[in-house]
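Example 4.3 (complexes with small molecules)
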Amino acid sequence: MSATATLSPGLLERGVVSLREEVMPGVWKLRLHSPRISALGRPGQFVHIQCAQAADPLLRRPFSFCDINPAAGTYDILFNVTGQGTAILAAAEAGQAFEALGPLGRPFTIPDHGTLLAVAGGLGVAPFPLVARFAAERGVRFRWLNGAYTANQLFPVDQLPGAVEARLATEDGSAGLRGRVTELVRAELQEATMIHACGPTPMLSALADILFDHGGSAPPCEMSLEAPMGCALGTCLGCVVPSTDGGYARVCVEGAVMDWRTVDWIRLAAMGELIHHRTPPSRVGADVKVGD
Amino acid sequence: MSATATLSPGLLERGVVSLREEVMPGVWKLRLHSPRISALGRPGQFVHIQCAQAADPLLRRPFSFCDINPAAGTYDILFNVTGQGTAILAAAEAGQAFEALGPLGRPFTIPDHGTLLAVAGGLGVAPFPLVARFAAERGVRFRWLNGAYTANQLFPVDQLPGAVEARLATEDGSAGLRGRVTELVRAELQEATMIHACGPTPMLSALADILFDHGGSAPPCEMSLEAPMGCALGTCLGCVVPSTDGGYARVCVEGAVMDWRTVDWIRLAAMGELIHHRTPPSRVGADVKVGD
Amino acid sequence: MAELDLSVRITDDLVLATPLMAASGTFGFGFEMEKVGGHAGYGALISKGTSVEPRVGNEPPRIAEVPAGMLNAIGLQNPGVEVVAGTYAPRWEEWEVPVVVNIVGDSVEDYVAVVERLESAPNVAGIELNISCPNVGAKGLMFGVDAGLAHAVTAAVRSATARPLIVKLTPNVTDLVSIAQAIVDAGADALSAVNTYVGMTLDLQSGKPVLANVTGGLSGPAIRPLALHAVYTVSRAVSVPVIASGGVMSGDDAVEFLLAGAVAVQVGTLNFLRPDAGRFVLQGIEAHMQRIGVRSVGEIRPAESQPSAQEAVR
Amino acid sequence: MAELDLSVRITDDLVLATPLMAASGTFGFGFEMEKVGGHAGYGALISKGTSVEPRVGNEPPRIAEVPAGMLNAIGLQNPGVEVVAGTYAPRWEEWEVPVVVNIVGDSVEDYVAVVERLESAPNVAGIELNISCPNVGAKGLMFGVDAGLAHAVTAAVRSATARPLIVKLTPNVTDLVSIAQAIVDAGADALSAVNTYVGMTLDLQSGKPVLANVTGGLSGPAIRPLALHAVYTVSRAVSVPVIASGGVMSGDDAVEFLLAGAVAVQVGTLNFLRPDAGRFVLQGIEAHMQRIGVRSVGEIRPAESQPSAQEAVR
Ligand SMILES: Cc1cc2nc3c(=O)[nH]c(=O)nc-3n(C[C@H](O)[C@H](O)[C@H](O)COP(=O)(O)OP(=O)(O)OC[C@H]3O[C@@H](n4cnc5c(N)ncnc54)[C@H](O)[C@@H]3O)c2cc1C
Ligand SMILES: Cc1cc2nc3c(=O)[nH]c(=O)nc-3n(C[C@H](O)[C@H](O)[C@H](O)COP(=O)(O)OP(=O)(O)OC[C@H]3O[C@@H](n4cnc5c(N)ncnc54)[C@H](O)[C@@H]3O)c2cc1C
Ligand SMILES: Cc1cc2nc3c(=O)[nH]c(=O)nc-3n(C[C@H](O)[C@H](O)[C@H](O)COP(=O)(O)O)c2cc1C
Ligand SMILES: Cc1cc2nc3c(=O)[nH]c(=O)nc-3n(C[C@H](O)[C@H](O)[C@H](O)COP(=O)(O)O)c2cc1C
Ligand code: FES
Ligand code: FES
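Answer. The structure with flavin mononucleotide bound is encoded below.
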């Protein structure tokens, strides 16, 4: 009877922490040993991680694959601490296990020729090490546009696999162009066979404006979106963004990686911030390492 | 203004785990470095420990001082895993900190001469290492009556400080008398200057019956009681047991150590079990060490 | 485990292989979860709320996490009864697990229209009447908070279908028992208790409510003690089976609801936390049955009841 | 911090040095907490519910832990108004923090008798009328769930005292707004929103309810989203100040209630978790004020409001 049915391979797996590293100030990389998920994961897909065992925090937390080593059976996530869930992950030690759902969502389409233009703002850098790895394997040229507020928030270029051509932008001018990463895009459009973008919604919508201006001549562009998630399986309808068909698209299944034309950028802009952070745990003292 | 008022010394202090040890099968000893609490704690008093930082589990957990080393600034608690809170404590590692309220409640009265008869059932052994230490310091004879279901659940006598005269009872007869610890008591009453008891309520009430039989000739007896606790400060009125004045006594402030005559044993028996364990955390996988 | 009897009877036409039902809105229409083996353990699936016309649903944000729970204001996004009856229902044919359709409406006529369209659809094991979704504006709520309106819509739907009819109570009322009784009087075969509790949360940066809809329905473990009380009081007051809903995270939680008086138990938010929620909870129930040594899940029932402070009031 | 203005006005006679009040039943009569410095941070203390005659309270177990909350059924154990007025109140003289007395009763006459006895007592900064404690049998509850009864008891107490009168709402109702309006019409100076939510939990071993009283009041973070919605709707519907209560665990939580429309915030269960709860929460509020750069706590108020799905119903 149905009680004997099993989950599709790899969907639910415990990942054992094998490495925790502060890549940039306040930005952590966590490596999880999770063979089945690591064998199946593709660039732009994500895992839905259960951070706590008790009833609070209740929901899982979605994180893009930052990089994967199928041979070693590990995948990496890259994150900063914004609340309860990421605080737990940032305090995790080698040997600790977290149950993850994955791989989930639609991956980036990796072209098999030409130039891949990667546009990343802030923590939108997270999925690109794996994208760069796949691009390198296919001999695709990888142009890297990375923007941040200041220099030490830019992702270390040497941590991107393969031959990377990088152009940088910082709002304080401490590295590369003084300004926003999207200001680097126009000059690159000609050469781009395809664009992959990930970052804050304002950045994605600025990019969409540029692509819109170029109309038919703009290269195909895929964007990784964010929305608060319940199930990450398509059932709760909680993670939607407005779509050009007048309705809504689920970030977890129609995305997280979507063709930029799927999203109704005008309605989305009118909605304001979709992401809201929770008040962090209120009671000090317990369950923390001294010094943390 | 009142915002500058401070807590009475030692009441709220972070204890840093310096040792975790499985003393008996499934019974853990945790040593916490907590100088102020360790300087003030007395036998029979307890600490109220915050196990989690998130909203679940919400309440603190009360534990008797098992032993204290004021010079080292540490105190020990002894516990078994019965649910969420104790599971967190049993998984704690050196360096981890837990915030504790304490010392709380009334201590055992340590006589300054004669024979102290200690009666402990199950985890009721917890407060007695410290009691034995104080008795030894005062040159008081320490008679140790310990009962359990089976031999390996008896507290290792060699872990009690000072010269200990032990008499044991196990329900399966694997050590000492086959039967209950209270069956050892009658023979001891003559010599006892004072009795200290801690254990399951049925054991305490059986002891109360014996003392009642002996009327005026019975030695003074103090018992450490248990009740679910909210505040542990006397305000919530949640931890009560029926008292002989017809009302209720708060275990946290009128106890945990009470004169046996304070408790209305007839009404208490009619109330049935006061302790109920919660369903343990339901979601597997997260936040646990592999192998746990 | 083989020899354990896990089946429960809601009506003669709705006997479930297990006491667990996937709660409406937490399982879609069953397709996504089938792909991941998520049907396992369930005795029935309850569909997302279905309306006469398709609904696009509310603007995002639609969900927000709160202590031991979540708020949702999905706004009953659904493809409409035509798609459910014409496209989805036929595809349920191959499933072993029966599907109950949860229906919503803004008027008695709406509800009746949905049920009538479903009459010609195959594989509809029953109807769950949602008179309690707190998320759709005005009318959607009123039926569930007023005994008269609840009676009216139940009676109308009752006369429109012979299929097993479950009515799902909203807990956001003063006197749940009198509303439950009115619904039973109107011919409901069973009651679901309860739907979500109306709540909200605000964003400290913007100072505004997090959910675009301002309010949302609270679900998850936070509401379990409240739902337990609802099941306890309602099951003592009515003659029909009560199906519990609210904060079930484990087999022990499901058992707690059976002890409170439920005949079956819905699992909702847990489906978002574990795609194997049905099997996970069922295994917990089986483990409990083995611990206490009962062979039939029906033997897990209330200890002879004590009067509740609440009952005393009424 | 010195230059921050934390004071809030409930009435001209009840102006608090900080927006925080220790919630009734979570602070005794203030004496235990004074010993441990627990008054710090509070603008007022609210006493345990006080009745005409002493009450021994309910049998244990009286409390049970549940996800992100606790259930309590203390049964209003208190020494009676004679002791409170004659012995306790005089000892409040030396405290900087004002004390509001929370009163309970089984009849209008009871409530009035308590207030009348308190009239001659010193150091009573105000009255909080508890018409909502779900733990005492029949009569205690009814006032709070019926607009007419709530109006009657409020009016009677109002005519018995000129002191600041706060009426504390029970959330266990269908239409909190209409009850709140009836209470304001009867002369209440302010409203507390809200008291605990009726819930229960059962023991899997015995199969029986854990609490001797069967049901208990749910408090703690689990109810915060529900209390926020109550404060949000009530504060938009009435002219008097609304004092929030429900699940405050931090300064940010208190700020969330101010943004929802509260003028002051009660801290309850947190007093059981931290004896320095008042100061802990106040420091969090001060930190938030510095972050957003406001000097007066009164500036933390609702962003211009959007209609709530709930309001739309009414
Ligand atoms: C498809 C996808 C991929 C993501 N990949 C990454 C990544 O690679 N690196 C990274 O740092 N972050 C990533 N995020 C964001 C990440 O999920 C949040 O940082 C995380 O959920 C915050 O949890 P918290 O408890 O620390 O924060 P809190 O603010 O306490 O979270 C409160 C609630 O809001 C939700 N939430 C908060 N921020 C976000 C957000 N940005 N997106 C969606 N939900 C959010 C949480 O899941 C939780 O339910 C991704 C989000 C999505 C949807
Ligand atoms: C004064 C005092 C001293 C104690 N000293 C010790 C000790 O030295 N060693 C030891 O092992 N245990 C001791 N206990 C019992 C200890 O507090 C419980 O074992 C612990 O609270 C269980 O928490 P849990 O989350 O693991 O269990 P759960 O069953 O999940 O707890 C659920 C709720 O019930 C409460 N609870 C459960 N068991 C008890 C209990 N026996 N007494 C009071 N509340 C309980 C918990 O605090 C919690 O609020 C003492 C209790 C009291 C009142
Ligand atoms: C995202 C979401 C959507 C829901 N949609 C519906 C619905 O369409 N119809 C309905 O009757 N109940 C709906 N519910 C309520 C659930 O069916 C269930 O009664 C409630 O969530 C309480 O159970 P839980 O705590 O196990 O989730 C929904 C709940 C959630 C969380
Ligand atoms: C143990 C306990 C006892 C309480 N006693 C009273 C009372 O006597 N009178 C009253 O009006 N409220 C009483 N309450 C309700 C609280 O004052 C408060 O309104 C409620 O707990 C919600 O706030 P919280 O979540 O911050 O605790 C009590 C609450 C608890 C937990
Ligand atoms: S998260 Fe549930 S549908 Fe996308
Ligand atoms: S635990 Fe609160 S009075 Fe004892």
